[in-house]
Amino acid sequence: MSKLFESIKIKNEVIKNRAWVSPMCTYSSIDGMANDWHLVHLGSRAMGGSGLVMMEATAVSPEGRISPWDMGLWNDKQIEPMKKITKFISECGSTPAIQLAHAGRKASTNRPWLGGGNVSKNEGGWDPVGPSNIPYSNKSLIPKELKLVEIEKIIDDFVLSAKRSVEAGFKVIELHFAHGYLVHEFLSPISNNREDKFGGNFENRILLATTIASKVIDAIGNTIPVFARLSVTEYYPGEGWDLESSIKLSKKLKSIGIDLIDCSSGANYSEQKIEIKPGYQVGFSKEIRNQAEILTGAVGLITESTQAEEILESNGADAIFMAREYLRNPYWALHAEQNKDSWPLQYQRSIDL
Ligand SMILES: Cc1cc2nc3c(=O)[nH]c(=O)nc-3n(C[C@H](O)[C@H](O)[C@H](O)COP(=O)(O)O)c2cc1C
Questions:
Q1: Which of 148, 167, 199, 278 is deepest in the core (most CB within 10 A)?
Q2: What is the 323 CA–ligand 1 centroid distance (Å)?
Q3: pTM above 0.90?
Q4: What is the DSSP string of 107-175?
């Protein structure tokens, strides 16, 4: 019996299998709007049999974008083009999900294929913000330290974008608390040296994450699953954000009503050293799942169906997120399942497996 192709019910949503498309920025929006690129990019992965297809990191405000070409949901005009995408994904029998994000001190950068780096103001860039004025690396811009009233506005921006996500037809919302973006910056003592209620001890540093989570859940009700993506460790060889901190935060997020922790790692410490190998983050997922007793998703160099099955069988995760393998093969899930009945009706009589 395949675990990968077993459905899973989370709150009101039944997700048809556990082979899920991880969020991937494509830097292809103008003014944060979805367009035909996103419809075909995400739609083809839904046609390809993935149980859940997640929209890329979607900024809750213009300053929360990684680049001027990021997806956004900071105004109502951005809802309509997303509806076309969620409708198509749903018609394929897949679950449309969205990742809501604020890039914090890593905002205002160029498209990767133009070399990355900072975008200047006269090229459409802006001043990045963060918990403290500590830059990510010696090449990064120095972020402006957020005032309390600005933090309150960011919390509201997450809530408003979550409501717009529901209106746009998304059935799962993921809060991006990972990869050295704003919320992760607050979590970590290496990027947060505030002296107010959002800085200092563990309880204060997690306050932004827990407030966003609880206000989003209050605003959208208790039927739509809400996930949180964490960098389970930031590989800092001192008092950084680590597995133990993530377990404590996951327990707290569970008590607030977060349904699943999407277990990633890194990207807040520019000198990080990671041993990249197949399934290199699965151990984090297993620990969070066991110790915080919450559903988890594993991600990171998972490419083979036997590998994915083994992770699920050994209780390493409840679902598998994949990114680059889905870029190589949008039909990965259909090939992995080896069941002709799962293919689109339009194709079934013409293919042999
Ligand atoms: C092109 C690209 C864009 C990405 N954009 C995002 C993103 O928007 N949000 C996010 O949390 N992770 C993002 N990631 C990380 C992936 O979701 C995933 O965690 C990572 O690539 C490891 O999975 P993989 O080995 O299956 O690619 C991105 C990765 C790639 C390759």
A1: 199
A2: 5
A3: yes
A4: -SB--GGGT--BPPGGGT----EESSS--SSTTSPPPEEPPHHHHHHHHHHHHHHHHHHHHTT-SEEEE
